[in-house]
Design brief:
TIM Barrel; about 15% strand; DNA polymerase, domain 1; nine-stranded mixed beta sheet; disordered C terminus; about 35% helix; alpha/beta; binds iron/sulfur cluster; 12 helices; disordered N terminus; tRNA binding; 13 strands; 2 domains; two-stranded parallel ribbon
């Protein structure tokens, strides 16, 4: 079969890649297939002059069997493999290092380019395994108690870089979608504000939920936001995932201090957006509340939080529409906040429980590898002692120089 398309450049815009993803076309001009959800993968194969089912075969090779070399995709013809080689690649993030905790938690530091790295954490628990995925390198929102915020914002991750995190973890775990699921949940709760990188995050979440991707149920993919209100409404229109909101305070004065975004979208406005989301999806919303000693852990805070949550239940007209996750603060070097003692945590929880709220205390995991929530802090080039080590490791893996 003659194929005149072999030498034609692929039109990335036709495949549907948005501007930031064009960065996923490497210097060789080849498209990183991690970037493509099912419709875009089909469009790409159409441009190659191939049938749609070929796109599905390749997705299975990549996301189910972790094969990244076209040569190894043995049910594709030789000519197609050569064409793919010419126009595409599957570029996996570089594992700079990874660490396993005694409790089964596993953390990866993944190099995204020569100067940026992010962290991804896997947390196994009874009957499930949750992967905490990053959406940005750093974060611009400057929440006062957050380790990531201390490094500022570098850039958004592409869809490929978000899915690359899932791929690295799933392969390491020997996850087989639909059969042997080690990876049962994903939370977009790592570095960054996912709604500030909307298109790339939504597309990545669709690959996570696709049967040809990682096959996760909608409710097992959770997006956690600090409260970007207009984007919560857009998310309700364009995706179908669970929503979590980083609340951390029951009143505007305190929340504006802890989460500066609250000055733009105060609690009442945020809660209205959450009500719209919960009603539209007919699903609960999880409110995360990091407990900090002497800051937001007093009984009057718990009472005010309980009132706010009950108000939310009534507005949604659904029992247990609001769920609260209590997260004892995990101190990191340089922070002014402290973790409350166990008695204060339990007393806070008791007030919520007595008000009829579901409010588990999230156990701290991976303490020995700094993997607990709020400690996701990527390597900050030129600012930390670890940067030299990071550069050395990248150079050792052929990324950047060791200068
Ligand atoms: S808590 Fe989340 S939104 Fe706030 S600064 Fe940290 S990463 Fe950004």
């Amino acid at each position: 079969m003659s194929d005149t398309r072999d030498n034609k450049p692929i039109d990335i815009a036709l495949v549907g890649a948005s501007a930031p993803e064009r960065a996923s076309v490497s210097g060789s001009g080849r498209l990183n297939l991690f970037d493509l959800d099912r419709p875009r993968m089909e469009a790409f194969f159409e441009q190659l002059g191939e049938k749609r089912f070929r796109a599905h075969q390749v997705m299975k090779w990549i996301h189910h069997r972790y094969v990244t070399e076209f040569e190894g995709m043995t049910d594709l013809g030789k000519a197609l493999r050569a064409k793919l080689e010419q126009h595409a690649e599957v570029r996996v993030p570089q594992v700079v290092f990874d660490k396993a905790s005694d409790d089964g938690t596993h953390k990866w530091l993944l190099g995204m380019d020569t100067s940026n790295a992010i962290e991804t954490v896997y947390i196994p628990d009874k009957g499930r395994g949750t992967l905490c995925v990053s959406s940005q390198v750093g974060c611009a929102l400057n929440c006062q108690f957050c380790s990531t915020a201390t490094q500022g914002f570098n850039r958004n991750l592409t869809t490929a870089e978000i899915i690359g995190q899932v791929w690295v973890a799933a392969r390491h775990l020997g996850n087989v979608p639909h059969q042997q699921r080690k990876l049962t949940n994903v939370v977009m709760m790592g570095m960054g504000e996912p709604l500030a990188n909307f298109d790339n995050v939504v597309r990545a979440m669709s690959i996570m939920r696709d049967d040809l991707g990682y096959g996760l149920a909608n409710k097992r993919v959770t997006l956690s936001t600090a409260g970007m209100v207009p984007m919560i409404d857009r998310l309700a229109e364009e995706s179908d995932v669970s929503l979590a909101v980083s609340l951390h305070a029951p009143d505007d004065d305190l929340r504006s201090e802890l989460v500066p975004l609250n000055r733009k979208y105060p609690i009442a406005v945020l809660m209205d957006a959450c009500v719209r989301y919960a009603r539209r999806k007919k699903a609960s919303v999880t409110f995360e509340y990091t407990l900090m000693k002497g800051v937001n852990d007093q009984p009057h805070h718990a009472q005010a939080l309980a009132r706010l949550m009950r108000q939310f239940d009534r507005a949604v007209q659904m029992k247990d529409a609001a769920k609260v996750n209590l997260i004892p603060f995990n101190p990191f070097p340089g922070t002014r906040f402290e973790r409350p003692d166990e008695g204060a945590i339990r007393a806070f929880q008791k007030i919520l429980n007595e008000a009829g709220l579901i409010a588990p205390v999230r156990r701290t995991r991976g303490d020995d590898i700094d993997a607990a929530c709020g400690q996701l802090k990527g390597q900050v080039m030129d600012r930390t002692r670890r940067s030299a080590e990071f550069r050395r490791r990248l150079a050792g893996q052929g990324m950047g120089d060791a200068a």
